[in-house]
Amino acid sequence: MADAGAKSPTIYDVARAAGVASSTVSRAFARPGRVNAETAERIRVVAAELGYRTNPLARALPTGRTSMISLVISDVTNPFYNEIIRGAQAAATEAGYTTLLTDAQESGAKEREALERAVSLVDGIVLATSRMSDSAIRMIAKQRPVIVLNRAVADVPSVVTDNPRGMRRAVEHLGELGHERITYVAGPEASWADGTRWRALREAVHDLDLHAHRIGPYEPTVAGGAAAMADLARHPTSAVIAYNDLMAIGLIRALTAAGARVPEDVSVVGFDNIFAAELVTPALTTVAAPLHAMGQTAVRNLLALTRGARPTSHGPVSLPAQLVVRASTAHRRRNNTSPAWGTTKVSGAPARASTSTAAGSR
Amino acid sequence: MADAGAKSPTIYDVARAAGVASSTVSRAFARPGRVNAETAERIRVVAAELGYRTNPLARALPTGRTSMISLVISDVTNPFYNEIIRGAQAAATEAGYTTLLTDAQESGAKEREALERAVSLVDGIVLATSRMSDSAIRMIAKQRPVIVLNRAVADVPSVVTDNPRGMRRAVEHLGELGHERITYVAGPEASWADGTRWRALREAVHDLDLHAHRIGPYEPTVAGGAAAMADLARHPTSAVIAYNDLMAIGLIRALTAAGARVPEDVSVVGFDNIFAAELVTPALTTVAAPLHAMGQTAVRNLLALTRGARPTSHGPVSLPAQLVVRASTAHRRRNNTSPAWGTTKVSGAPARASTSTAAGSR
DNA sequence: CGCAGGCTGGCAAGCGGTTGCCAAATGTTG
DNA sequence: CAACATTTGGCAACCGCTTGCCAGCCTGCG
User: Rounded to a whole number, what is the distance in Å from the CA of B207 to chain A's nearest CA?
Assistant: First the structure.
């Protein structure tokens, strides 16, 4: 039993107690096979008795490897990151790595600063939706292995959601429901994902002979979605795809407040499948990003890099998205081509039996 | 300009370039005043030119202080922790500390393991809703300063929500609405908060001449709340207080599915005021824990401890909770004493104008 | 029997800072 | 101007662990 009185024991204490040199103790732990099996076992026993644990800091100094990775998130309070964090943690822990979580608080400056302090502490970095410029990221990337999430930066390996395919599924879904014009409610212009999604939407509507219109940009939040309401009223459509779930939720609330019914009057599709998506009313139809898998993949690839693997030069690693159909989308009502929200008295939607989930969301 | 070619420069490089001894460089950074102002300035300039940054690892070895703290969370995906994390991060960053976020994934074993690896890396630890036993926590606490959140452990300083007062407000609110019997939907038995809340509820109903009944325990999740439905149907009441928001949301969904209307037939109050609480329909009336402040306070107190402050022996630091009144609570309908859920056809609730927030939630 | 080669374990030089102690330089005082 | 107090900067010994290099020992083989 370890008594927690004094300082924790070092390899020297173990070495003395076991009657060997400190280097042998070190090797017994760090270099299996380099030391005689019996000796190693004896050392192991003595170490256990003394309650010895190798000090990661001291180990890191000569080796230069800390077994820590940094995960930088632009905003921890955004539920979008929850599963990413968890996936990343899982992959890191599994590989014996500790995760240094940093919240950039939506500020490129804070992100830089935090990174500056962390960079010498970690073996690699995952940047989830960084707010920094491409060049700043490349700067970091030449000091330590870096993986960016949901973004493409030249010369820096990345992991992204397959937005085009996900968007395609969403458009097909709306098309099957009879919608002909789709409004895209745009997120931040600086967002790589936003550009990709809009582009994919245009291609999809073109192929399927539908029409798309874009409004925005807005903040990628509930408030931002609500703000889109005004513009939407000017270009009424029966179907909307929002940049992300938060905005979709905000928009639905605004629509409802204005007297429109979702999905009867307007179908709304979100992106990301965040936790709250299935909690809101109506439950949100959304394109589910493989959040957990993304976090996991990012970390795994990062660790591969730290072990000296060459980054794949085939562009970003793309993970499949799935459409989760819930209750915010429905058939377009033919007799209601040009919705006049708010003019008809709302009679209330009966409890929907639905919430059919087309694809498992996690 | 720092060229990112070679290894990062050390104090020796700076010392040589500035024509001083390495110790002087060290002191110029770590011991202001110990070195002549001019010399220090010159060193500073040279260091900047070389792109020198002090290596936290190397510094930690001799000093024993890493400027890192560990924040252990029982489940990062639980939105309850979002603001706590952020508050903690903010306080840590402000003090120049880096946060090591660890997700215990609801497992006491994983928590221990993670802690074991982290303990030698950090100057202090915040345990948010730990799954470990009191004695295990005390064990950790004698190796490093520890602050526990939302729990009382003898001899270990803690920060908690003022549950009794919050519960009292909730009961008063329901009482004012005419409810006479309140059902408490319990969370995990092992939860310290659960016990505190139930006790507070009993006291409050006693003082106000109301009645309380307890069902459970259930999992503190949406599914757990839904599971409570069955038991609730057996003891119908017009008012329910759930252990937390997630359960309240689950319960509301189950009630709605069963044909009961919230809040017309049943008023529901949650705890925590998580992000989704205002997004669901009806928006949830809930007791808002000062999440951000808790994270912040925990870290500040922890850092005070690492600086050698004696822990306050006055028991846990208690932070005030506030009641946020939204749309899930309403006047009890006198003619509906014994609700027969599901027998009457639901006609649908008109869009509520409400969502009145009695107290700012953040 | 002599020797090359594989195992083992020890020695000691770092890794990049910190800091107690000392001495030179400078400032103060009587 | 001598004696003494203060600054200021350098020396060198760590902090705890890793690892290149070396030597002793044991085997196996010609």
Answer: 36
